[in-house]
Amino acid sequence: MEAYEAELERQLQQIVQEIEACGLEQYKDALLARRQPALKIHLELAEQLPVGSSKVGGMPDLPPDFSYPTLIEDYGDVPRGTPLTFLAQYRLQDLASFAFAREVLPSDGMLYFFGLGFQSGDVVLTDCGRVIYWRGDSARLQPYAVSEGVNTYQQAKIHFEPIWSWGFHLLDESLPAECDEITDRYTSEPLHQALGIPTPIQPSDLMEDEEQLKQHVLLLQLDYVPKIGLNFGDAGTAYFLIPKKDLRECNFAHVWCEDACC
């Protein structure tokens, strides 16, 4: 058993105990049926980080020949060709220490996330989000100074923690209201995560369709981050999901990107 697996087992036993303490043991199987391992993303403000670190905000660390992404079509008053805003990057080696991540993600390289940012701090992803995978010599990476007028955010280091994601929003509505005592405990706070089951805050054709969800992998769920000035509407959330088939082929051209607000 890998070290993180012991932590997941501890978390599982904890929720089982809570279910039993609430007198809901007969609903335990239903509550836990959809669980899958995920990586909770913790953010720590950091003025300086080694080049190529997993992070949110700051300047992206890119190779010299990287083609910086721009808006493909006009978005309202924003013309196509406008440079997108850098949101986050993963050093994929940081995730490769978890077996469930190794099963679906490339084991090395960098994964970059972009959206259309505004000076208010808001970011739009729907029809504007982009994910780019790069694999090469990490010694070639260097901080990239974005064009003038492109919004940037304070830099925060990413730390990955193994957790369970529960998929409580997919539960059968026939379950008694008493089960809300359990589900609310695990869904009431903002959550940054990868590889788990997304937690939608607005109706979503994809995220509320269990069969469709099974065919996708959540690359990133990023809630609003006021401490770095990043927002998605009114206390909103950003989602990046990719079809499993495309991920197996390292094809990131058709990532499903959406932002939603409360």
UniProtKB/TrEMBL annotation:
<dbReference type="InterPro" id="IPR035948">
    <property type="entry name" value="YwqG-like_sf"/>
</dbReference>
<protein>
    <recommendedName>
        <fullName>DUF1963 domain-containing protein</fullName>
    </recommendedName>
</protein>
<dbReference type="Pfam" id="PF09234">
    <property type="entry name" value="DUF1963"/>
</dbReference>
<dbReference type="InterPro" id="IPR015315">
    <property type="entry name" value="DUF1963"/>
</dbReference>
